[in-house]
Amino acid sequence: MTRLILASASPRRLALLAQIGVTPDEVIAADIDESPRPKETPRALALRLAASKAEAVKQEDARVLAADTVVAVGRRILPKTETEQEARGCLALLSGRGHRVYTGLALASAGSLRTRLVETRVTFKQLTPREIDAYIASDEWRGKAGGYAVQGLAARYIHNIIGSYSSVVGLPLYETANLLEAGA
């Protein structure tokens, strides 16, 4: 069996892999520019970033699994929030409406690159200023696509999810398992 490298430093992705009985032989964070290109769609961005991460870490004797999650309202790509102002802006935009979460997957091995894209629709309840303040105070939003973590405190604000919960967390498990089995 070929070694498996996870091209992500995300503890959530590592925990999700463990949930389906997969333990990477190595974890190497891919260092790439994650900026969207002009007129790039959220779907295209998620796929490009996953593929770029897999290619950046690729090694001849290993399979490299990479993923990237993009949160979007229409064609508007929301940032991985680093400031309180960004997080407040995202939460205000998501409040009371639906959005889409796209997770791109890539598996690089022996000269091949296979990709998958998973789309999930998520609807937030209408958030009060007090709820936004409380979530901001939790600091859970920091570094999260769209300014929230579905597996954390934000779960109380999620009215509906249509699609893959694990994809919104950061790694669609069904598609990941199938990609790994096909590339074994």
Description:
Strands 1, 2, 3, 4, 5, 6 and 7 form a 7-stranded mixed β-sheet that branches. The protein has helices spanning 11-19, 42-57, 84-94, 129-138, 165-169, 173-182; strands at residues 3-6, 26-27, 62-73, 76-77, 98-109, 112-124, 158-162. With 184 residues, the protein is α/β, with parallel strands linked by helices. The termini are close together. It contains 6 helices and 7 strands, in the order E-H-E-H-E-E-H-E-E-H-E-H-H. It has one domain (3-182): Maf protein (Alpha-Beta Complex), CATH 3.90.950.10.
Q: What about the largest sheet?
A: 7 strands, mixed
Mean pLDDT: 95
Rounded to the nearest angstrom, the radius of gyration is 16 Å
- Number of DSSP E strands: 7
- Taken together, the total number of domains comes to 1
Number of helices: 6
* Helix/strand order, N-terminal first: EHEHEEHEEHEHH
CATH level-two architecture = Alpha-Beta Complex
Look up the CATH topology. Maf protein
Assembly type: single chain
Structural class computed from helices and strand pairing: alpha/beta
Helix content: 25-40%
Distance between the termini: 7 Å
